[in-house]
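Example 279, ligand NAP.
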Amino acid sequence: MIVVTGATGNIGRPLTRTLAEAGRQVTAVSRHTAAVPKGSRHVAADLARPADLKPVLDGAEALFLLLSGDLHAPGSSPADLIGEAAACGVRRVVLLSTLGVVTRPFGPTRIAMRALEDTLRESGMEWAILRPGGFASNALWWAESVRTRQVVAAPFGDTGVPVIDPADIAAVAAACLLEDRHAGGVYELTGPEVITPRRQAEAIATALGSPVRFHELTREEARAAMAQSMPAELADDTLDILGSPKPAELRVSPDVQQVLGRAPRPFADWAARNIAAFR
Ligand SMILES: NC(=O)c1ccc[n+]([C@@H]2O[C@H](COP(=O)([O-])OP(=O)(O)OC[C@H]3O[C@@H](n4cnc5c(N)ncnc54)[C@H](OP(=O)(O)O)[C@@H]3O)[C@@H](O)[C@H]2O)c1
């Protein structure tokens, strides 16, 4: 049995489906009860309480570990999740980390994530670490304004990064969970090309079959909008990446191709598959 955490999110949903279609028993974990694909079962549990995971992990052969940002806050103990998995006899763990541990290693969240990577490496279990850059699904931030006003409002319209389709992260995660050859693998995951917000808006318009206007926000306007749904520190951090990506954040990684034997999918592909959110 394979345990998938974050199972109802952008990565977890396609990962759960892929593993179930591969004929594996899957336990899909998130806090809120949700329908899951045939062949899998859902268990409601909060990763902020690692001891609650014991009944889930007992008898599991492998674990996909995805932590939301607040689990890196002072006082939380994600390392205990790895300890719990090892104590329960889990053989293999695939950890969703972030490219930021390499490109911007000094923020508190990334220091905590790097420490978690180290805990996993020293756990005695088999491991693989996934370090994705920005997600194509971050474009869902624009879904409501596209639906209601046919507008994408974003800062830094002509500065892009090679965003990755979460379905490709899921496909790499599935390979790492199912295939022995990825033990000890550390994979940097990006899309196939740098794409700017302005070109993302064009791809959404093409998928919709109707015009979408691009409206460039100032950094201050974007910060004010983001601060409504995330801590100001995280908004500043995200804006630093979006506005001034470092060379390592612009690099197109070969790792998706290497693991899957095919190129990562372009943003237009993600937009076409998720266009219902923008209608
Ligand atoms: N977005 C980016 O550009 C980017 C870049 C690099 C790395 N990342 C990392 O990617 C991850 C997000 O992946 P995603 O987009 O697939 O996630 P998502 O769509 O935001 O979904 C999050 C999933 O985690 C579950 N969850 C959240 N808090 C939980 C908790 N305390 N206990 C148990 N389950 C919990 C959610 O379900 P419930 O709410 O029902 O619990 C949901 O299933 C984060 O770790 C982020 O740091 C993101």
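Summary: Residues 5-12, 30-32, 46-48, 66-69, 96, 98, 132, 134-135, 137-138, 166 surround NAP (CB under 6 Å).
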